[in-house]
Amino acid sequence: MRTLTLWSFGLMAALSPVAAQEQAPVTVGPNGEPATPVAELELTDAEIEQIRAGGYTAAFAWHELYDWSGAVAQGAKDEFERLGIEVVAETTAGFDSARQQANVETIMALRPSILISLPVDPSAGASTYAAASEGGAKIVFIDNAAAGFEHGKDYVTTVSADLVGIGEKTSEAMAAALGSEGKIGYIFHDADFHVTNLRDSAFKWMIENRYDGIEIVAEAGMADPACIEDIANAMLLQNPDLDGMYVPWAEPAAGVLSVLRQQGRTDLKIVTIDLNEPAGLDMVQGGSVAALIADEAYNIGVYAARAGAASLLAREVEPFLVVDALIVTADNVAQGWQQSLHRDPPESVLNAQ
Amino acid sequence: MSAPSPAAPAASPFRTMLSRINLQHYVVYVGFLAIFLFFAIVLRDSGFLSQRNLVNIALQTAPATIMAIGLVFVLSAGEIDLSFGSTVAVSALCAAMAMAAMPGAALPVGVAAGIGAGLLIGAINGALVAWLRLPSFLVTLATMGLVAGVARSLTQLRSIPVTDPLFTGIFGSGSLFGITSLVIWTVVGVAVGHVVYRQTRFGAHVLATGDNARAAQVTGIKVSRIRLSVFMISGGLAGLAGLLYAGRLQAAKYTLGETDLMTVIAAVIVGGTLLNGGKGSVVGALVGSLLMGMLNNGLILMGLSVSDQMIVRGLIILIAVAVSLREKNR
Questions:
Q1: Which stretches of chain B sit within 8 Å of chain A by CB?
Q2: Which of A71, A196, B267, B272 is the most exposed place for a label (fewest CB within 10 A)?
């Protein structure tokens, strides 16, 4: 376990553009591009009219559909409707890069003007999106861009969250939950995935450099969320005096909650990323979840669609657009769900308030 | 004395011919034609019938067809293999890692590593089933998880690029006399599989083993060897499918093949192979695989939501499997 932890830390240091820096980390795109706030991308009324008159179409090739990507999809669909662009196809790949490639090829039979997609495997992106590129579709990526693709030539832009901002806000939430003092366990995503790698390492950097009273006393890598209970159990066994725990996203946080309940630990505070019902319910009921940090998923979709539409008018779009992150606590849960996912929290969460 | 009963009218030649036709052999072909015609009419303006789209269906189903050939042999012998999906991933990764380690001889080492990994996994499955007489369902369920875990740990979830142009040409994007390599692999695989299955003593022994293993043993068929062989065939062909995925994607990742299990099983069953052994069809598996691919393709082109695609696909597969099995049980 210790060897794995050290290896994982080394992997993090090797992969992350953040961990080894002494200066505050900065959000950069998958190819190191500077981040541009999405609010800078607007369309004039004349441009909107031109797009509406163009008879354009769009399609989606998702990696998988769940709460977060569903919100992204809805944001894009609403924006396409506003711009008079018809959505002709939507697919999901079940995180299978081969299936995603097949889906893109099939979609291109419909010759959509715009294709929005989150690449399952960016390193296989050139093959995955070859059909779309050859077919002349304007490709907008979410979170990750296809390796080897050139901005402005092969794709329009990548839209994502301010990943360092998420890490920063997660550290703020942790500090607020612990009164800026305490020992925490840090569970990071042990895989080569730009989004989670940057969020995790940003959180760690913030804690180590901005909060002298908070110490990361335990670290563990999680490759498969199905193993989270074992990881959390081991961490708590070795560090029974933990005050807080960072979990890389909300799905495995449910597993950590389960472990805490089994052990009767009501004192330990969890902060995690993304909104989901079990974590939200625990939070509003005054449980272990102190805060959920969310990005504006709906707006990711809105601006991805807008970027694709802008490119149809030969407008140049910045290579990496980012949306804001927000801290959601029991006090602002309804507002947080609306701002992130553009819908009300689940009834169970609302009723528990 | 009673009057002689009038002679029954002679059956028409057409009726005689119809009564001799065993419908169970043709369910998959009728189903394929029906679905093809449906999409051809409904999607006539949506690119379904374009050459590009039809070729795409053939390309996309090539790895699944190769896996299906292996599964036909396993099912026909009265066994089952649930591990072929995981084997695809490990084979692709082994091939990619071997090629990265020895770029000067990328093609031969990649092929040897990929097929070798598949054969090894098949041999392990076969040995456990054939000599320890463990139920193949449980053995391959266990090896499915084990091999999936190996695939994840081989590269710590990282994807490995596959860049050797000869490899990607032969197993991915290349072509010969205008025919893409994936189509060639499909045709060769089905042809060889069909001949071995139908025309060789080995194929007959596989069917005899699946039909009645005890009787087959009594007649001198080495049932254990047959069982070992079919699992190695399944593993080896899963390895080949891994090479095709790696060549087509120009990358290998632990997720390859993960979503193919139910598709391949459905293709084989719809194609005429019995779940409990003794009867099967390699050509039927090909048509079943193409049917699955065409279904995926057509539902996407119809613009259905993802949920609706899953519901409709499940319903059609349910109907196809039910009709196919019902015909066999008559």
A1: 46-48, 50, 52-53, 56, 59-60, 63, 152, 156-159, 161, 172, 245, 248-251, 253, 255-259, 296-297, 300-301, 303, 305-306, 309
A2: A196
Q: Under a CB-based contact definition with an 8 Å cutoff, are residues B244 and B91 in contact? A: no
User: Please, what sign has the CA dihedral across residues B68, B71, B75, B76?
Assistant: positive
- For residue B52, the SS3 value is helix
Query: Higher confidence at residue B93 or residue B157?
Result: B93
Tokens linked to A325: 């992150």
| Count of C-beta atoms within a 10 Å radius of residue B284 | 26
pLDDT digits (tens, 9 = 90+) for A185-220: 999 998 777 789 999 999 999 999 999 999 999 999
What number is the ipTM of this complex? 0.80
Residue A200: C-alpha distances to residues A175, A192, A228, B1 (Å):
16, 12, 16, 103
**DSSP secondary structure code for residue B131 in this structure:** T
* Residue B12 tokens, joined: 């028409």
Please indicate whether, in this complex, the C-beta atoms of A105 and B60 are within 8 angstroms of each other. Answer: yes
Instruction: Identify the residue whose tokens are 């380690």.
Output: B101
- Return the closest-CA partner of residue B137 out of B239, B275, B13: B275
The total of other beta-carbon atoms located within 10 Å of residue B102's CB is 13
Residue B83 in tokens = 């591990």
Task: Return all residues near A106 (Cβ < 8 A) that are at least 6 apart.
Answer: A89, A91, B53, B56, B60, B296, B297, B300, B301
pLDDT tens profile A62-78: 999 888 899 999 999 99
Does residue B25 contact residue B261 with C-beta atoms inside 8 Å? no
Asked if residues A202 and A168 have their Cβ atoms less than 8 Å apart, the reply is yes
B157 vs A102, B41, B160, B240, CA distance in Å?
22, 43, 10, 21
Provide the whole-model pTM. 0.83
**Domains present along chain B, CATH in parentheses:** 24-329 (1.10.3470)
Q: Which residue of A has its CA nearest to B59?
A: A102
Tokens coding B230: 């079919």
List pLDDT tens digits, range B194-249: 999 999 999 999 999 999 999 999 999 999 999 999 999 999 999 999 999 999 99
With beta carbons less than 8 A apart as the criterion, state whether A185 and A246 touch: yes
Partners of A107 on chain B (C-beta within 8 Å) are: 300
* A contact set with B (CB within 8 A): 11, 62, 65, 87-92, 94-99, 101-103, 105-107, 109-111, 120-121, 123-124, 126-128, 131, 190-192, 223-224
Contact in structure between B236 and B54 (CB atoms under 8 Å): no
Q: How far apart are CA A310 and CA A116, in angstroms?
A: 14
- Separation of alpha carbons B128 and B147, rounded Å: 15
Task: Report whether A130 contacts A2 (CB < 8 A).
Answer: no
Domains of chain A: 2-26+163-296+328-352 (3.40.50.2300), 36-161+297-323 (3.40.50.2300)
Cα–Cα distance between B293 and B41 in angstroms, integer? 18
Report the SS3 class of residue A328: strand
* CA-to-CA separations, B195 to B186, B191, B226, B281, B289, in angstroms, rounded: 14, 6, 17, 11, 19
DSSP A90-134: EEE-TT-HHHHHHHHHHHGGG--SEEEE--S-GGGHHHHTHHHHH
Look at B256 and A65 and tell me if their CB atoms are within 8 Å. no
The C-alpha atoms of residue B167 and residue B161 are separated, in whole angstroms, by 12
Interface probe with A: pick from B295, B302, B306, most Cβ of A within 10 Å: B306
A124·B156 Cβ contact <8 A: no
Task: State whether A98 and B63 contact (CB < 8 Å).
Answer: yes
